[in-house]
Amino acid sequence: MLKDLTEIEKKYGNPTSLKMFFPLDSKEFKNLTESMRDGRNSDITLFIFKEGKIIVIAKPWYREGLYRAPSGGWKPNESLEETALREAYEETGTIIKLKRYILRIEVTFSGVDKEVLWTSHIFTAQYLSGILQPIDKREIKEVNLLSLEELASLKPILLETGSGGLAYRAALTQKAIEEIKKL
What we know:
- This protein is of the alpha/beta class.
- The protein has helices spanning 2-12, 26-35, 80-92, 148-152, 155-160, 164-182, and strands at 16-23, 42-50, 53-58, 71-73, 94-110, 115-130, 142-146.
- The chain has one domain: Nucleoside Triphosphate Pyrophosphohydrolase.
- Helix content is 35%, strand content 35%.
């Protein structure tokens, strides 16, 4: 993984590094640790630009109008680039080109009596082709386009859910938008 990151940084730039901490309720913590059984401890989050807007996704349990940037677990047998391309296609139906590695966030998620370390690798990407529709319909119910301002305006909705995972996604999105505006 470290060799892959060195190559990725050479190709897409050195990201801003951050550390965060978020508590999860017992159900969220269990879901996270179960997702880590195959050795995953990282995700790739993508801010994919199409026609000046960002491609966003909604999970099946999200209330109407709630979206976030697509993301997915980095499998130990995949390169970071393979994960990014696979997740973009599965979640949005699109073919993309990675542009910039903008953020690396090491987040500690705490449960009742345990903690786990997770890393999010955040990239900007460019839409190349495809129809905006989820391929993995179990995981994603809808794909849409939002401006950066519209995406930023969803932070209160993410926070009012009471979900530690969505609070983390709100913070990640805010930091990513700050980095994108610097480009």
